Amino acid sequence: MLDSQKTLKWRFDVNTFRLLGRELITDRITAVYELVKNCYDANAKKVTVSFENVGRNAEGKAVITIEDDGHGMSFEDIRDKWMVVGTASKRAETFSPAPFNRRYVGEKGIGRFAVDKLGGRVRIITKQAGSDKRLVVVIDWDEYERLSREPQLELFTDVPNDFHWEKAPVEEQGTILEISSIPEHEVWTDLDIRRLERELEKIVSPFFPLNPPFNIWIKSNENQEFNKKLIQAETVKFSSHEFSIGFNSEEGIQETLTFDKDKRAITIAETPLRSFGPVKLHIFYFNERAKKKYNAAYKNDDYRVDGVKIYRDGLITTPFAEFEQSRDKKRDILGIEKRRWSGAFDKIGTREVIGILEITNDGNPKIRDATNRQDFVDCKEYRDLKEFIIAQLNVLSELKKHERDVIKEEVDSALLKANIEIKEFESVIADIKRENPTLKTALQPLLKQAKQIDRSLKRGIQQQQKERQEHVRKENIYLSLMSLQDYAIHISHAVRTALGKVKRRAEFFKDNFPNTKYDDLFADYSIEIYEEMANLNRIIDFMLSYAGSNIDMEDFNVRDLLIDLFERAYKPEFESENIHVQVEIKDNFIIHANKKFFEDIIENLISNSVKALRNESNKIIKCTGFIKNDHFILYFSDNGEGIAPGDEEKIFEMYHTTTADLGGAGVGLYIVKTRAESLKGSIKVIRSEFAPKGATFKISFPFNKEV
Amino acid sequence: MIEPVQLLIIHDDMSENDPLIITLKERYGGDNVKLEKRSSRGLSYIHNHLISKLIVLLDFDLGKGEPHAPEVIEEIRKETSLIYVIILTAKQFSSISHEALIKFINNEALGIIQSTADIKDIVSLVDKAAHELDTRVDCVLEQWIAKRQKGEREKPYLTTRSGETYTLDDLIIEIRKETELGKRMERGILQLAIEQLTNGDRRL
Fold it and tell me: CA-CA distance, A321 to A315, in Å (whole number)?
């Protein structure tokens, strides 16, 4: 017979304890780490992690104890919270009460099962201040294990766990987890304990001590080093540079690093506060020499040099608070390594810096932990913060590049000096020979050798120069490839956008033609389809310019090229559009660069200006160029309709256009920008020379005589 | 008169004469379809039309300095869950970040569609949203109210225990703003409707 109103309930097999404990928590270090985090949540000021007889000759007497002086648990806490799976996520408050104001770090409510990873039996001894007895609960995971092997079904929730009360002084408070029945093969070597120490030392910021404190001690009866050792972040040694930036909230100042080209050093600049709020950053940089020293001292174990970590109110933020033994698996949530070609081309990678970024809950409310604790919540403020961090690293990159240049110069001058010294040596020998003809035979081999060294040195210098050129050539190719990756993303987006436009118009024709009501639209659409196809063609040409030989560099005279473009190639167009052209290129010089790219920049700027001038009666295009320091500066202006305020950056995006009616696809200025960047230059909009009308672009290229 | 469905297209690269816009205007009325190129302005438009029957067609990338679709939808949901949002994108679906997809799902995007899709597919998604708007309690109530005399609509219709009185027009606003009273009303109306339906008297 069928009953209509029956229900079924979930039950948990006793095996569940494995899923929650040893199988979820993959590593013993993470297990201890999780338990220590629980002590933090209990407002402990002091935690002691003790290892007793955990070494090789433990003979089953091994015990791990984690003892804290936190608020302890009542019987109800144990029964209704601690022993209910997943309770922590239901916690209503995010912060513990004053004076602690700690942000709770345990959120999943399963950290407590970490004990199962460590040993088969745990005694929980816990007491709250004010009570005259302490509660002792014994959980015997071995018993669970035994039951799980029994053939009959045993439920996780049906296994009884013993408890009893002991008398205790009223003022005592805290929790002790005493883990025993540790399998004999699970030995804790000195190395394991040291690894634990390294992880624990990251919990609190070394520069922003917690108040009240959160001190962690490690104790071992088998290792003298850990005869009650306070865990403290070791002072960073061997770094080559150390910088610290802060802020002044009242005056709205955020400090930031900048590279001072004149002083050839990093200095601190004051900038307005950012969207993410004020931050402090302490950063250590290890240049090549420092890294070598470091690796020698720490035997290539560079776990500490691991990029930038974020601390909130002195405590490490959750994305970083998880132990990952393998370096390469460490999460790079700030995207430092994700920047293309990190570590190459003078870019700074995570293995070259230690950074401690301090935020506070009050000062940076928008930087919030994501619920999965793998990252922060993605928002504009967080993205700005990431950009800010990357910007600081970019300043270090400039320093790195500068240091490399200095080494290059040193090597060059040393080689040159050696060459001169050999020449001097030769002439001294020749003098001696002249004065003492009898020594001629004896000196002959010496002279021969000196000549040989001189030749080798010259060859060496030549070879070095050749290799340097080769290096620059390769670097240029890599840079082109890098930008190609960016282009591929932009171009596929652009092509799809263009196709979408064409397709919608064609679809409209297909569904509605003929219909006199839409005649105007049909006319518009046919022109738009034609223009969109022309744009697609342009995009493809642009893309194809990367195929083949166009990435080669050549020598060309910039002045000649510009004059050729303005006074010959574009002359007919200027004349038919009635545009007056002023070209003033002050310096006459040759650069080694990609000529085609350079032409692309000028051609697109001209075509952009022609469109901007369409409604102007007295049309002017002006181009001025000169050398300033080690840069070639080009001002390109017109007196056309100008750029709307706020659009100064947008105009360089692909598909941003204000001249769609003239077939402007918004590709031109994108090409200008990417081409300028390929040439290691930059472009920006500055105040128009013809203000209030018109627009002026400032383009700047490094003018490196060596290249 | 019953308030018509309003369509807002937030797209930085679409023109007023785009066939999609023309088609939507034909279908939903020229005055009811609006194009906004800047998402920040789109958001303030939404903010001022919280009590309208609004469908938003949202482009994914909205240019530098403007909030992109994941942020826009998040902002919308901070104010209301009654506006339907459809995402349009030229991106390869596989290149949309997981974070963005999570935001779309958690903030109840009604659909996501490639910008190269057929107009009719986009329109059918909009129709689906419009249908859902029309069958919602507040909208049905509105249709019912629309049939009443103006004077009747402005008369106090309901007095709460705390003594506040509401006209029929007020009640619609309460429901759309998802206030406690609004939610209670909505539940009550649905319960009543179902009771009526199952009450033996099967005439609708």
Answer: 9
Q: How far is it, in rounded angstroms, from Cα A689 to Cα A684?
A: 14
All residues at 6 or more sequence positions from A488 whose CB lies less than 8 Å from its CB, including other chains: none
Does the CB of B75 have a partner CB in chain A at under 8 Å? Answer: no
Number of other CB atoms surrounding residue B173 within 10 Å: 15
Residue A51 to residue A263: CA distance in whole angstroms: 53
In whole angstroms, what is the distance from residue A84 CA to residue A86 CA?
6
A125-144: burial string, b at 16+ Cβ within 10 Å, e else: bbbbeebeebbbbebbbebb
Distance CA A269, CA A395 (A): 12
User: Comparing C-alpha atoms, which of A392, A554, A590, A553 is closest to residue A475?
Assistant: A553
Residue of A nearest to B74 (CA): A379
Mutate to test the interface with A, among B35, B116, B118 (most CBs of A within 10 A): B116
Instruction: Answer for the pair B42, B55: CB distance below 8 angstroms, yes or no.
Output: no
At A216 the three-state DSSP class reads strand
Nearest residue of chain A to residue B14 (CA atoms): A501
- Which residues on chain A are in Cβ contact (under 8 Å) with B101? none
> What three-state secondary structure class fits A39?
helix
The pairing of strands A241-245 and A280-285 is antiparallel
Q: Specify whether the CB–CB gap between A635 and A626 falls below 8 A.
A: no
CB contact under 8 A, B64 and A649: yes
Q: For A547-583, write each residue's pLDDT tens digit.
A: 654 556 778 888 888 888 888 778 778 888 889 999 8
Least confident among A274-278, A647-651, B9-13: A647-651
CA dist A400 and B189 (Å) reads 70
- Map tokens 């020229």 to a residue: B30
Q: List the structure tokens of A478.
A: 């890599």
Angle at A134 between CA A133 and CA A136, to 5 degrees: 140
CB contact under 8 A, B90 and A497: yes
Residue A492 and residue B119: Cβ atoms within 8 Å? Answer: no
Let me know: does A122 contact A138? Beta carbons within 8 Å. yes
Closest CA to A595 of A544, A636, A554, A633: A554
CA atoms of B33 and B52, how far apart (whole Å): 13
Shortest Cα distance from A535 to chain B (angstroms)? 14
CB contact under 8 A, A521 and B118: no
Strand order across the A121-127 sheet: A162-167, A133-140, A121-127, A174-180, A63-68, A46-52, A215-220, A229-230
Nearest CA in chain B to A520: B17
In our burial notation (b when 16+ CB lie closer than 10 A, e otherwise), range A19-31 reads ebbbebbebbbbb
In angstroms, the CA A427 to CA A359 distance is 67
Nearest-by-Cβ selection for B91 from A493, A503, A508: A493
Which residues in chain B touch residue A666, judged by CB atoms under 8 angstroms apart? 13
DSSP A566: I
Cα→Cα distances B86→A541, B11, B125, Å: 34, 12, 8
Q: Flag whether pLDDT at A344 surpasses 60.
A: no
SS (HEC) of A406-418 = HHHHHHHHHHHHH
CA angle A288, A292, A297 (to 5 degrees): 150
On whether ipTM exceeds 0.85, the answer is no
Tokens 């507040």 locate to B138
Give the rounded percent of residues in chain A with a pLDDT score beyond 90: 19
Q: What is the DSSP string of A270-316?
A: EEE--TT---EEEEEE--HHHHHHHHHHTTT--TT--EEEEEETTEE
User: What pLDDT score does A24 carry?
Assistant: 66
* Least CB–CB distance from A500: residue in B12, B23, B115: B115
Residue A570 to residues A534, A577, A586, A613, A635, Cα–Cα distance (Å): 20, 11, 21, 15, 18
- CA-closest candidate to residue A357, choices A198, A208, A201: A208
